[in-house]
Amino acid sequence: MDRALAFSEIGEQLHLLLNGLDVVYHAQGEYEYADSIVFAALDKLRRGSRQNLAAPATLTDWRPAVHELRLFKSEEEIAVMRRAGEITALAHTRAMQACRPGMFEYQLEGEIHHEFTRHGARYPSYTTIVGGGENGCILHYTETKVSCAKAIWY
C-alpha cells in the first residue's frame, strides 16, 4: 500500500490515483456509493484530456479472480487454517470445562477469548456466540449479558 486516504477524501482524490492506469478493478453493482465514486472519477478523467488526464481503458470485475484464488490454498495457508481449528477446539473445550450455573454469558465468552489469546490468536475469526437458557436458542446471539443460572445443562 502506497497511500491511505480518509473516506471523505476518496471522492476528491480517486481520479488522480486512477490517472494513467490501464485497468481498474472494481466490483460494479456491489455498493451503489462505491459505484458513484468510481464512475465520477472515470468521467472526470475522460473529460480531462486537455489537462493530461487519461482514463483507464478497461474496467474489470475483480471478483472472479479473487474467488478463483479462494479455491486453492498453499501449504502455509492450510497449516494456518489447521492451527486455527486446533485453537478453536481448545477454546470450546475450555468453555465447556469452565461453564457453571450462575455464570454470566460474557464470563464464558471471556474464557473463550482468553484461550485464543493464550495460543497466539489475537481474536477468533468469527463472532463468539454464547447463550444460556432461552438465549441458547437464538441464532447468532451476541448480547452475552445474562446469567446462565437458568440454563438447561445436558
Provide tags for this entry.
single chain; 154 residues; mainly alpha; 2 domains; two-stranded parallel ribbon; 5 helices; elongated; metalloprotease; Xaa-Pro aminopeptidase; EC 3.4.11.9; metallopeptidase activity
Describe the fold and architecture.
There is one protein chain. The protein is mostly helical and 154 residues long. It folds into two domains: 7-68, no CATH class; 75-150, no CATH class. The protein is 48% helix and 4% strand. It is built from five helices and two strands. The chain has helices at 7-18, 32-47, 63-70, 75-98, 105-118, and strands at residues 23-25, 58-60. It has a two-stranded parallel ribbon with strand order 1-2. Helix 1 packs parallel to helix 2. The radius of gyration is 24 Å and the shape is elongated. It starts with 6 loop residues before the first helix and ends in a 36-residue tail after the last helix. The model has no long low-confidence stretch (mean pLDDT 88).
Alpha-carbon Rg, integer: 24 Å
Structural class: mainly alpha
Order of SSEs: HEHEHHH
**What is the terminal separation in angstroms?**
51 Å
Give the integer mean of the pLDDT values. 88
Low-confidence stretches: none
Q: For the largest beta sheet, what order do the strands appear in spatially?
A: 1-2
The main sheet comes to: 2 strands, parallel
Count of distinct strands? 2
Beta-strand percent range: under 5%
Large-scale geometry? elongated
